[in-house]
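DM from R.C. (forwarded with permission)

"hey, sorry to bug you on a friday — could you get me a structure for this? deadline for the figure draft is monday and I only need the backbone to look sensible"
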Amino acid sequence: MVQKSLPQRKRVTSLLVAILIGLSFNSNNGLWAHKDHDHRSSQHTEQDHAPAKFLSVGAAWEMTQKSTAAIETAIASQNHEAIHEAEESLSGALSFLQANSPMVTGDKAKRLQSALKQALILSSHVHVAADAKEMTKAAVEFKKLQGALKLVQAQYPTEALKAPSKTTSAQTHLPLGRSLGKLCAFA
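My reply, with the result:
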């Protein structure tokens, strides 16, 4: 039998303890939000779980607003099932903001990251409570989430959170019947 050195045994023991602690998490932390939810039988696909992609911080913030409104409506109508999709959209938007906010600098950047992290945690708490059909708890967690989102909003310059307009005056394709040569001066 091979004897392991004391530092190596300590590392192995520490790793095992960390794994056991990780496995001992209960459903209140959001990691097990879907333990009773069978994604194979639900109406959404794996594409719905792909990382959210937005064209701008403003577009992500717009999704944040729409998702929170949908969650608020679902809580008011006691519709726990409607919270699932809205929370996933919200989490995607918040994650996008976490990774794409270079316009916020200094102390505001630190506060923003902290507020976004808190908002993600609270969003997960709302989701877990809804999955457990504990709508009173979902409502309490949602109020906390709204507070965290106000902190997020306060860190951004106002113009950064404006969604881009949906129309553009730039020509994005060739008109029918026109060749590239007729449009280019050098042709």
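R.C.: lifesaver. Residues 45-161 form a domain with the Four Helix Bundle (Hemerythrin (Met), subunit A) fold (CATH 1.20.120.290).
me: no worries. The two ends are 80 Å apart (CA to CA).
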